[in-house]
Predict the structure.
Amino acid sequence: AKDPVRVLVTGAAGQIGYALVPMIARGVMLGPDQPVILHMLDIPPAAESLNGVKMELVDAAFPLLKGVVATTDVVEACTGVNIAVMVGGFPRKEGMERKDVMTKNVSIYKSQASALEKHAAANCKVLVVANPANTNALILKEFAPSIPEKNISCLTRLDHNRALGQISERLNIQVSDVKNVIIWGNHSSTQYPDVNHATVGEKPVRELIADDAWLNGEFITTVQQRGAAIIKARKLSSALSAASAACDHIRDWVLGTPQGTWVSMGVYSDGSYNVPAGLIYSFPVTCANGEWTIVQGLPIDEFSRKKLDLTAEELSEEKALAYSCLN
Ligand code: NAI
């Protein structure tokens, strides 16, 4: 039997946490033959609720779940973890300035970076879900200099999956038949959902849909605004789809992407596609042997170029804002 993998979920008493921990315990993230030990962190006001989640995990009697650590102590939470899914953060509340929210999250991610650096297992893989996801991941990277930058990522897989969903609905086909959409840039409304390289079977999505006005207009805004549409409908933000996307992200990273298929991940830019180096930016990636590689050489048309640049500009501004909050 395999040794258990320790998976940290921060913000585990929250909405996404409640959807995510049972998925992990059922093998959705790491596979049906991989035992797991869950580490769940939240803050003291949520401690009682976190303990309730732990009780339910026990009650669910998951065969793969070999242990549960539920704690408000960051060091205890981070100790020995192989995978860290960072869902905890400070939400923007009505009337709050962007800078105030950024200050709170910068301080959370700075201290959690140190705890992970000191106490996580060597080669721990980190996925930041909490918003602003790209910039929180960048702060985590900056304050955990001994964690290789290859091991730090943020979630744009939900946006990627939303794009697949919109295409499959439009063509009235199975979502699993659509592949190779791309989410470029920030996990925000400036992201660029790109279908120029997407296919169904061997056929380009652009030819099959044959409606450039829709693909360059409503499709893009629908994906960009989907989070807001869910909040309007549910009065709560996306949770089951975010949890499912987090599992997809880690599964593909650890177990590899299928031959001929790429996915979107927010990763540290090396300057590929003229995206400024030093931003956490969503790119098309393939994964093998536990490592992602940015897909190279895709032609970028003028329409796309502008959109790649626009979302990069927003990320540069967020980075500057985050740094100004450090002082
Ligand atoms: P939530 O508010 O239900 O849960 C967040 C949890 O984090 C709470 O239990 C809170 O107590 C905890 N928390 C706060 N500060 C913490 C800290 N310092 N350490 C540990 N835990 C802490 O929020 P929800 O709906 O679960 O969303 C979580 C985050 O994920 C939000 O930032 C949200 O914007 C983001 N999100 C990102 C998506 C993506 O695709 N990247 C999609 C959907 C949500």
Notes: The longest helix spans residues 302-326. The pocket of NAI is lined by residues 10-11, 13-17, 41-43, 46, 87-91, 108, 129-131, 133, 155, 158, 187, 237-239, 242 (CB under 6 Å). The first strand starts at residue 5 and ends at 10. The chain has twelve helices and 14 strands.
